[in-house]
């Protein structure tokens, strides 16, 4: 009896220890996590303390870090190497887990830490050649000693921090997911930069439009996916004269770009169903001194991304001889991406031009060892990708490459992602050696327009609208990046890979991309819309953002005079919907005034008195949003509902164009009924359906329908760990407004810079500097972001400078 | 009482010096094996030591700098209030230590 009891109790104990030691699916290892000496309790707010001194061996000289009251570090070094090493160290102290996670995500290595549930995600990025793209980025840095040094010093700083890190101080997510940080490499930084290329240029509609063309003909495609799209107010003011020749594409002797022989060859891709890629867009603009109260330019930028905690950006000031720059950096990469220095300010929005094509490959046989191209059989190559899987055997993917790039979905395999066209090779600018590190390095140090120009010429992919302003009063914007030279419309559909006719052979010269300096209208701006009007001689793509945000920005800036920085900060949260302002005056009179249910009647009255502003504490935005969705669905779902095949839905601009200018086109007729429906019938049906569905979801019309609640915005944790994100936030604005927030995305950084003898700036992002969920500074700026407030930025000249908003100073020094 | 207090002190020191959580099973197991007078006392003495060593540290953090992280973890486990994490940490430490002490005692003739 005694014996049985002993065996049973020891067995129960062993089982309990094992169960508490091990992660179970989504459940973390409870014993490790709860241990108050090394588990989550140690990820407390003591990380907020400012140490007087930190050891960072390897520094040449001591580095001073000054912390302001938002816990933003201002790093003062005496040489570049120390500067980037300190940046790596300080950034890792706040964001190590995030940096490493994004590098793993991009390189297709999540299965190593979370097991088979990330396999398809990993396969996808392996097949797109993300790691190869990052390797090519590093190869492009050979011979550029200053850039290599910046990446290596940054990595040494990160590694010095990792070495100093004892288990109890691991960031919380390592404990929840039960793994350990590994040494940082320059390849990780390259992967972080490629993550942005993937997020911003990694998908297009080539495959979807091809399916549509096969089903309905090219005429329908051109009518519903027109280029140029309706109502567009281009980035470059229409009528701007181009400062290069009329037929530049045919200039003789221009250096050729990517050729079959260049190592640059491969491409990539990503898809719109990628949950990370849900809602991008951005605004930037610069006002000339003639339009501002101070007589000097004001520059503004707010990049919109899928939001997450820890925050997408890490704010920092970097100062050393030859550089004193402030702005936001990407966790995992050295330098400042968007910001300003004492002389200039710059910002970016995504260009949206097409830098990704698909080529249908004709293989010789099932071995796929050879493919037909330009009259000859060419050999494919294979890159073996080993995906390590936690708790399982590794999975090997042999990714096939042509001279274009990889074939992410060979026919007969598993698609991994529904938007991968079968049997097609991918040609993607993100795969080429890249100069983005050169740009970041140069623009951080730029003193004037010439320096800026020289720096951004290297910025190839992801192409951006670079806005610029300086203390001398100059403003400019460049739709900047490496764009393949194309015939009009080339690359709108899948291309024929057996012919060389559609191969990429050269790039649009970097000084002939759309750009303008000091335009007469006194401002430059972009909101991801069409870059230039029809006089621009090159074809760059067709799928730009719809017109609403860009047109609203230009309308407000055009009317502005004597603008103060506060006016610009306020403008960044403008929530007026041009779509509503254009559509409702036409649609509301069509709706029946009698016979509506009580909610529908109430909603109609609300819309009639509405000023088209998407307010969080009003119900009008909710009603319009649902009405417009129901309306679009009623217009398009009959045409586009076809035996399980998915087609892209035409844009809101095309729908609006139909309503305002083409009411007699057949699309309003619901093909599934025998009657001939008109705009009037469809509008009435859609409104009734919208009111009914809102009532069904939220009850009778009233405060329960408020936009801030019915739509709401949530900032989720990067790894979607529950409890580590924000609750639902009531944010004004929405798609098509300047404050372009959706349920899970929005302005990831709002910056306003007033240039002149003394630069002044304001900024906010939805989160905080710390990546520790137990820190006060994890999400301390979220409330201000929701309310549309920005913080005045602390920008120091010297580390000794007194300022009322400093928390303390840390000396970084080496042990010698 | 002296062996119990000494064991708790040893447990505390091991936790402070190393990252391993399972000391909360090992030390009470040894205590149960060598010192515990009977099964019932083995469990409750172990429980007391484990709950004190784990709950004490958790209480220290909760009252100084750990309110936010406790709230976050409570949200992750869908438990609501942060102080519940304090209670659960103490309870978990107590149960593991109690079980270990009991198992240790059960090996004795």
Question: Which helices and strands appear, and what pairs or packs with what?
Answer:
The complex is a heterodimer of chains A (816) and B (109).
Chain A: H1 2-21, H2 30-34, E1 53-55, E2 63-68, E3 73-76, H3 80-107, H4 111-114, H5 119-127, H6 130-139, H7 145-164, H8 172-177, H9 186-201, H10 206-216, H11 218-224, E4 281-287, E5 298-306, E6 308-309, E7 314-320, E8 323-329, E9 338-341, E10 344-350, E11 356-360, E12 370-373, E13 376-379, E14 381-387, E15 395-401, E16 406-407, E17 424-428, H12 436-445, H13 449-456, E18 464-470, E19 475-480, E20 495-496, E21 515-517, E22 523-526, H14 548-559, H15 565-571, H16 578-587, H17 598-608, H18 620-640, H19 652-661, H20 679-698, H21 707-710, E23 716-717, E24 745-747, E25 750-754, E26 760-764, H22 782-787, E27 791-792, E28 806-813
Parallel strand pairs in A: 1-28, 3-7, 6-23, 11-20
Antiparallel strand pairs in A: 2-3, 2-28, 4-5, 4-22, 5-24, 5-25, 7-8, 8-9, 9-10, 10-18, 11-17, 12-13, 14-15, 15-16, 18-19, 19-21, 25-26, 26-27
Helix pairs in contact in A: 3-7, 3-9, 6-9, 10-11, 12-13, 16-19, 18-20
Chain B: H1 2-17, H2 23-34, H3 39-64, H4 67-76, H5 83-106
How would you explain this protein's 3D organization?
The complex is a heterodimer of chains A (816) and B (109). Chain A has 816 residues and is of the alpha+beta class. Chain A is 31% helix and 17% strand. An 11-stranded mixed sheet of chain A has the order 1-28-2-3-7-8-9-10-18-19-21. In chain A, strand 7 (314-320) and strand 8 (323-329) form a beta hairpin. In chain A, helix 12 (436-445) packs antiparallel against helix 13 (449-456). The N and C termini of chain A lie far apart (65 Å). Chain B has 109 residues and is mostly helical. Chain B contains 5 helices and no strands. In chain B, helix 4 packs across helix 5 (83-106). Chain B is elongated, with a radius of gyration of 15 Å. Chains A and B meet through helix 1 and helix 2 of A and helix 2, helix 3, helix 4 and helix 5 of B.
